[in-house]
Amino acid sequence: MNAASELSQEVGKKAACEALGVPRATYYRHTAARSDNNTSRPAPPLALTESEQQQVLDELHSERFWDRSPLEVYATLLDEGTYLCSVRTMYRILDKHNEVKERRKQVSRPRYQKPELLATGPNQVWSWDITKLKGPAKWTYFYLYVIIDIFSRYVVGWMVAHREQAALAKRLIEDTCTKQNIIKEQLTLHADRGSSMKSKVVANLLADLGVTKTHSRPYVSNDNPYSEAHFKTLKYCPAFPDRFGCIEDARTFCRSFFTWYNQEHKHSGIGLMTPEQVHYGQAPEILEHRSKTLVAAFKKFPSRFKGKVPTPMSVPEAAWINKPLHNENLTETLEHAPEGAGHGRPDFCEARSGMTEYMDSKEVIVCLIYGNWCLIFIDMFRWLYRGQKERFLHLVRDYCARMLEEASACFSGTD
After folding, report:
1. CB 198 within 8 A of CB 216
2. Are the C-beta atoms of residues 148 and 122 closer than 8 Å to each other?
């Protein structure tokens, strides 16, 4: 906020807030609060004097009133023909001396940390969840357990059971880890906070297998997006029935669905590959074959591609759960990201030492801001021309985050 205040004197408040990614309402509220702290409020003319306040406090501290509320004290004194102050003033005086608090026991909820997980290959991060499948009659359900790899979207294990039970989840996880040859300290298993997910049986199993477990925050479905999206794909399938006649019907349907999903479904999140192709390392060969096909089509009809050789969709190099804004792994990943995600951008750290030698910190941040914004505008026209507004906004946030990091690094070397 101090950087925004300093920069606003040079380029104006609106430009400074937009460049630093600070909402103008937050900036104005911060400056108003800072100015309010400098002005002391005058005492109300009808306020009690110090001696009168002490008299009220002594009465409240007296032995007959020390376990009574101000309302009872006020009523008792009125019955005795005494008036000291209003009930609200009694509370105000007690609050001034830190003697007002909630007497009832309050729920103290822990502060849950947002999970931040990164997978750069298969069998690094799995996500699992349980969903209900409607049975033949009302209020009857079958329970579908699904474990999915977040990088390849490959369903590594699934099971349909009559109930949700920790012992069943333990058996599924143990069999799946054995089938995928998981070694210790290799895998992170993410889930929500269901009873089976937080059970001691599953926790002890994961500890024995050397698997790290993480959980979503309560009532935050975005912390488990891959499992939630997979269940939507399952239940929006045209062949998905309204109800299953028996558990064998549910298992038969799921067997055919997961075979289709893993081996035939061209997933848009992994470059239109099937999860099986990405999970077992077949993607590079398929990408090479697709590239050759597109090059041959370009040579045959170059005018249809406006002179630019088409390229197939590539598989993302990383998959995230709650992508962090400031992380060394994030910066390293962006350096190798596809076109338009920060690849090939000049590093302003190279010129930082020379800049700080001849300019003060305010001039340095101005140069960084305008240099980064020039790059943003270049990408802006390209991505907006392609109709990808969300991609443009994502680039703006990434560049602003990088700009603030570079400015902070510059400040650390100045007085």
Report:
1. no
2. no
| C-alpha separations of 92 from 47, 88, 97 in Å | 11, 6, 9
Q: Which residues contact 169 (CB under 8 A, 6 or more apart)?
A: 130, 145, 196, 197, 199, 201, 202
Which tens digit of pLDDT belongs to each residue from 142-185?
999 999 999 999 999 999 999 999 999 999 999 999 999 999 99
| Residue 246: partners with Cβ closer than 8 Å, 6 or more residues away | 135, 136
CB neighbour class for 49 (10 Å; exposed up to 12, middle 13-18, buried from 19): exposed
Paired residues of 149 in beta bridges: 126
Q: What is the pLDDT of residues 249-268, one digit of tens each?
A: 999 999 999 999 999 999 99
Q: What is the pLDDT of residue 414?
A: 46
Sheet holding 188-191, edge to edge: 155-161, 141-149, 125-134, 188-191, 212-215
Q: Do 177 and 154 meet the contact criterion of CB atoms below 8 Å apart?
A: no
pLDDT tens digit sequence for 33-87: 665 555 667 778 888 999 999 999 999 999 999 888 999 999 999 999 999 999 9
**What tokens does 231 get?**
């269940």
E strands of 61-167, at which residues? 117-119, 125-134, 141-149, 155-161
Closest among 182, 128, 189, 186 to 158, alpha carbons compared:
128
